[in-house]
Amino acid sequence: MRSETNSVVARLINRVFPRMPDFYSLIDEQCDLAVEVMSELVAFMSSGNWDKAALVGKLEKRSDELKARNLDVLNRAFSTPMDREDLYRAIVTVDHVVNYAKTTVREMEVLAVEPDHYMLEMAQLLHQGVVALQRGFRKLPKDPASAEEDADAARKAERNTEKIYRRALADLLDPDHYIKTRKDKHSAAIASIEGLLEPLGQHSEPVALAVAFVVDTFKHREVYRHMSNAGDRLAHAGEVLHDIVVKIS
What we know:
Helix 2 runs antiparallel to helix 5 (117-139) and helix 5 (117-139) runs parallel beside helix 9 (204-248). With 249 residues, the protein is mostly helical. The chain is built from nine helices and no strands. It has helices spanning 2-16, 23-47, 50-76, 84-111, 117-139, 148-172, 175-180, 184-196, 204-248. Helix content is 83%, strand content 0%.
């Protein structure tokens, strides 16, 4: 009889004061997937294998599902281990970084842009940044103060990404660099444009080269800028981790 009474009381208490969800584990799961996505992005940028790019898109869908699940748990939670707004920002900002990985490969596909060494360098830095976030969020339950160094590492990865972005733009806007590094695909594009400019006669080839340079510059600039924006989202996630550390340490 007593055990039945205790069981009823326990159920009543759980209904009035439900157990707090393990938000640390939920966010860790998001970070783990973000690292997996960025690993595939690096693999794509280093190999040019479009199957890797497709995998980035598939993994991003899983990330969206995790974000939706975590936000639903947050909305239903009676209590949380930290400020609700900070939990919301952590869930959303980690997902934002993953979203930029997907949209980067999508832009490259639409614009017919192949990976280059600048894109690879930026992808590697973004990967380093999400690994830092993964480390930092894992430390929060037991040693939150030590996660500050990981927040700094994530923000440093963004700053280094921005440096690569500026170097990439400098080369991109240099016509001499374009001519020196021109590949067969560039030559094919130039020949195609030259055909449209045939009425110009002997001037068609240099004009076609100039047009191809401008078009190629705009395409690559879009991708570089998109990866720079991914770095901005990474820095934002690092700032969220920093804010949480300050509040719960």
